């Protein structure tokens, strides 16, 4: 059991520092909305990961290999992510103009009402539409499943340990990012949110490219 936990530690750490849309949105949520909001978002992300793990465990690996490389899934996921980035970018500009009446109060940060359920759903969907996450968990079960003798209890401990390490490191990231909140002006927060919208747009384009040019992107990586 202890050996299975140790085996999971580096994977949980790797997952926590994987650079992707979730990584950036988590930090942005911590900076702009606070600790509890970021934890709610992260809980949604973890639920999506747990869902993928269950899918991987209870589905045949041959079928999953076909699904994870299906261009249509990359295209749909990329399109959703692109649309979210574009809509967020446009909405942010409108909201910022409403928030800032003139240059004199541009330094003020207007408190936002936080919808924790919406953030939870946002975290789940943002992680779930990224088909690459399914590929990651499929690779983990293929590589480490035999090492765990495909024993249900050992696999449960292994994956639970990965998720807990991932969450613990995310909490540390959230606490560090949260410290910046009181030092930011409304304009700074607007810039951060706008940057995240652009990042989501870029990741959406990348997923769509992966749908049309999978071999090209594999050769680049």
TrEMBL record:
Its main location: membrane. It is found in: Cell membrane. InterPro entries: LeuE-type (IPR001123). It is a multi-pass membrane protein. One of its GO terms (cellular component) is plasma membrane. The chain crosses the membrane at residues 6-27, 39-60, 72-90, 124-144, 156-176, 196-213. GO terms for molecular function: amino acid transmembrane transporter activity. Keywords: Cell membrane, Membrane, Transmembrane, Transmembrane helix. This is Lysine transporter LysE. It comes from Capnocytophaga leadbetteri.
